[in-house]
Write a structure and sequence with these properties.
410 residues, five-stranded mixed β-sheet, 16 helices, 10 strands, 47% helix, Cyt_P450_CS
Length: 410
């Protein structure tokens, strides 16, 4: 990686451009690539060469990333983006599918978001706390019966948010096992690409069938509420898939990777166990420290000046959320996990119009699940050496594929 003074001269810009650092430090599964900190310190908005040859930008500073994420002159439409990851040289990115809010701009995005926002308010999500506590306790009971050595992802981290998504969407109990099996197949490490595609198609059919039932026999859930809107069945199925993708894999990996991080920092786990009242702060700090969605991309819809640099229309900007959340200009001692910290202002849920709709539900689930886990199993520990925990290094959402844990006397 080369570091040269920044300039707007096209020739010099091409010479000084870097490639996106993606390699995490060896033995440090929770830390971003070290080169990101070097770039952020040198210049928080720098030239980036994309694998397809495009010359764009990389934002690493907290204030810079926040400003770009909030600026609607930058588009989130997939088809306008260049991807910064290796292996995407020949990738032609199609537009977002119907209902995928992540890949669309105003006014289409506003139309969907306005219909959904009222379903995910702080009050409505906090009202689900008792149900989250019940589901959490049931799975901890099952884990205790199954143990003492289990895969925490399969036994706890995945099923708790999956069942909450079922509750929100109104998936009947008799159909939940089928739903969860299809959802798990999409991101399972052993699934082939064909199996993942088949699972996605199967979920689409599942949702269309469920929507038909909700129109005929509405119940008290988000999907039934939405059937009274102007949305078509195809839009409803797309939104259901979007809510599943946004609300399951993210929270499951935060619980899995968050547990791994706390087990690797036993003084932090002990503090949470001693005072479950720290749960709110612990969750915010884990969101900041781990940043499981490390990178986003935007495309300039017009010439925009940011940090004194001119980003031209059509240029892609990669926003490094993991670098922003470790910016010492925003957080003191940012590379230290400290659950006593007030980590307000982190960007783990994004910022601007694309800020995560379901963030309050995710918070409720994590605030319940993590203290309950460490209180129920005070001797919880890894069942394998840390370096043998399989990490999701090749996926958009970082985390652990499996987390073997055990408890009791050593």
């Amino acid at each position: 990686m080369q570091h040269e003074p920044s300039t707007n001269s096209p020739e010099q810009a091409a010479q000084e451009a870097v490639v996106l650092p993606i390699q995490r430090p060896e033995g440090c599964p929770f830390d971003p690539p070290a080169e990101l900190a070097e770039l952020r310190e040198r210049q928080p908005l720098t030239r980036l060469r994309y694998p397809d040859g495009h010359l764009g930008w990389l934002a690493t500073g907290h204030s810079t990333v926040r400003a770009i994420a909030a600026d609607t002159r930058f588009s989130s439409r997939y088809e306008l983006m260049h991807y910064p990851f290796p292996g995407t040289e020949d990738l032609e990115i199609p537009p977002a599918t119907v209902g995928d809010l992540t890949g669309m701009d105003q006014p289409e995005h506003t139309r969907y978001r306005r219909l959904l926002a009222g379903k995910f308010t702080v009050r409505r999500m906090r009202a689900l706390t008792a149900r989250v506590e019940q589901i959490t306790a049931e799975h901890l009971d099952a884990m205790e019966r199954q143990g003492p050595t289990v895969d925490l992802v399969r036994a706890f981290a995945h099923p708790v948010p999956a069942l909450m998504i079922c509750e929100l969407l109104g998936v009947p109990e008799v159909r939940r096992a089928d739903f969860m099996e299809r959802a798990a197949a999409i991101s399972a490490p052993e699934s082939t690409l064909d199996e993942q595609i088949a699972a996605l198609a199967g979920l689409g059919d599942f949702f269309r069938d469920l929507i038909s039932d909700k129109r005929a026999h509405p119940t008290d859930d988000v999907l039934s509420d939405l059937t009274t809107s102007e949305l078509t069945d195809e839009e409803l199925a797309g939104i259901a898939g979007f809510l599943l993708a946004a609300g399951l894999d993210t929270t499951a990996n935060m619980i899995g990777l968050g547990t791994f991080a706390l087990l690797s920092h036993p003084e932090q786990a002990a503090a949470l166990r001693a005072d479950p009242g720290l749960a709110d702060q612990a969750v915010e700090e884990l969101l900041r420290y781990l940043t499981i969605t490390p990178t986003g991309v935007r495309a300039a819809l017009e010439d925009v000046e940011v940090d004194g640099q001119l980003i031209r229309i059509g240029e892609s900007v990669t926003i490094s959320i993991q670098a922003a959340n470790r910016d010492p200009a925003r957080f003191d001692d940012p590379d230290t996990l400290d659950i006593h910290r007030k980590a307000t202002g982190h960007l783990a849920f994004g910022h601007g119009i694309h800020q995560c709709l379901g963030q309050q539900l995710a918070r409720v689930e994590m605030r319940v699940a993590l203290p309950a886990l460490f209180t129920r199993f005070p001797t919880l520990r890894l069942a394998v050496p840390p370096e043998e925990v399989p990490l999701r290094t090749d996926m958009n959402i970082y985390g652990v594929h499996r987390l073997p844990v055990t408890w009791g006397e050593e």
